[in-house]
Amino acid sequence: MAEMEMRAREDVEIGRDITPAIPPISFSLHDAFLHSHCSACFSPLSGRPFPPRRHCHLSSSSSVFYCSPLCSAADSPLHFSSAESNLLASSPPSPSSESSADLRAALRLLRTNSAAASGDRMFGLLTNREKLLAEGDEISDRVRSGAAAMAAARGKGNGAAEEEESAICLVITNGVEVVDEKGRGIGIAVYDSAFSWINHSCSPNACYRFLLPSSELSPSPDLRIVPSGRTVENAAAAGGVGYGPRIIIRSIRRIEKGEEITVAYTDLLQPKAARSSELWLKYRFICCCKRCSSSSSSSSSSSYVDHALEEIATSQGFDIVEATGRRLTDYVDEVITNFLSDDGDPETCCQKLERLLISGLSGLRLHPLHHLAINAYTTLSSAYRIHASTSNLTYDHHCPEAFSKTRTSAAYTLLLAAAANHLLTFEPSLVACVANYWASAGECLLTLSSSSSPPPSRVAQQYRCSKCSFVDALKAVSYADFENVKLKLVDCIGGYTRRSWGYLSKGCDYLERFEDPMDLSWVQKWPGSSNRDAKCGLVVAESMDDVWQLGAHCLAYGGFLAAVCYGEQSPWSNQVQRLL
């Protein structure tokens, strides 16, 4: 895909929008959201929804709904003329069925754009059809069965469905998951070359956010990126529908004029092997970015991150053990899957994951920064919180058992944020996921301190800090001084963590083994059971004031990083402002 790329037309500082809000050329909600969100603008439905209109008459039975007569009037013609209505009628959405969002987006694409396919492209975008169909895997099966369903919906019978196959492949290759302000994937959308020509990197210099009608109001910047010089003549602007979820690209580090713009197509906190597998399965390319090209023996920062995400402790020390490491992956996946099932037990989940983290499995133990350990911290935080709220226990200090579980849940969110922040110092492109972790840690710690006895003092809750002025950092974000603001916030978080960690980790065998989650320089000495059984000494917070201040600083730090990634008026930044 080297011939399709976008480059900066000028120098761009960190935390700047580099495109206006780009409308989609096709989009569709996931099946699970068809009855709760507007199919035209993706806004949540409230009150009485409006069904689609056909020939000036309301449809008596429909699988899609709209938030207003305006949205219904705008989208209803496309809903019927694209044969989306026929597809939904023949295969009604159900919780057990696979989402048809990709097929419906492909149908809409064929109806709204009349340009003919040219080689491996449609509407100037790569379809990847030949590569996607060549492997004979689940993707190729999905393409062929989906194309047949689309052809039937369009009244083409059982004949060849090459056009439909190309459209589905285009959606798979160029479609992006639309995420709402709660972080849920609610649908998919396809955008023209201004976004779709932006290539992937595991160490990207940009990210993106979605602009939904209910999310934010912001000025529209100029387009600050252009196709590379050798492909300007190939750029094609597909005709969009003029509504739907718009997308904005934003810099997450300084970008020089002429530098290629890149975003992430996959989870960057996965190890290299997992990223490569996912990229090949969906997009059929091998990533050759700087991070992926670094050898495991290299001393580069990117190499350190990927090595830490895969390290397993053996009797000979830390190493990457691929074959036997698969057993650890299967075990963690099974525990988490059981927890997330309808009859999942949070207490059993906590016991199994903490036993794995402490004792390991078949002589293998996870490094504290291993990607499975990071997944375990996320699950443990949720499991402890759910256990506290579903065990017929009150959620405050009047019930010590419930409060203890809530405290442990908050401690795991802090450990997760600290671990991710340690990796951020070596790989700045992790900023978006780290922002979310810090905001979650702050919210949990503030909830914990507010439900304690005695509660934090009024003095502690004045939202002021003489060292870092974290509130001012949120109100007037100085991206030009990004590193300085970040270091001040992290320094304050470290101080409050040292005063609070003994209290937060008390009673949890695994957490008590960490001397200071904000100082992970010692993780290379992380002991096995043979050379360390002693726990670190506990330092109990003098009052809940320290825990409250820690929570406020974590929340502010998460809000600061989120503002860099998504803008000061984004739902994420506004949520932090509301909580503070």
Report on the structure:
Strand 5 (121-122) and strand 6 (125-126) form a beta hairpin. The longest helix has 25 residues, at 400-424. Helix 18 packs antiparallel against helix 19. The protein contains 19 helices and 16 strands. It is 44% helix and 9% strand. It comes from Linum trigynum. InterPro entries: SET_dom, SET_dom_sf. Residues 105-266 form the SET domain. This is SET domain-containing protein.
List the helices and strands and how they pair.
Layout: E1 6-8, E2 26-29, E3 53-54, E4 57-58, H1 69-81, H2 84-90, H3 101-112, E5 121-122, E6 125-126, H4 129-134, H5 138-153, H6 162-174, E7 176-179, E8 185-190, H7 193-196, E9 199-200, E10 206-211, E11 225-227, E12 246-251, E13 262-263, H8 272-283, H9 290-293, H10 301-308, E14 312-314, E15 317-319, H11 322-340, H12 346-359, E16 365-366, H13 371-389, H14 400-424, H15 431-450, H16 470-475, H17 482-505, H18 544-566, H19 571-579
Parallel strand pairs: 9-13
Antiparallel strand pairs: 1-11, 2-8, 3-4, 5-6, 7-8, 10-12, 14-15, 14-16
Helix pairs in contact: 2-5, 3-6, 5-6, 11-12, 11-13, 12-13, 13-14, 14-15, 15-18, 17-18, 18-19
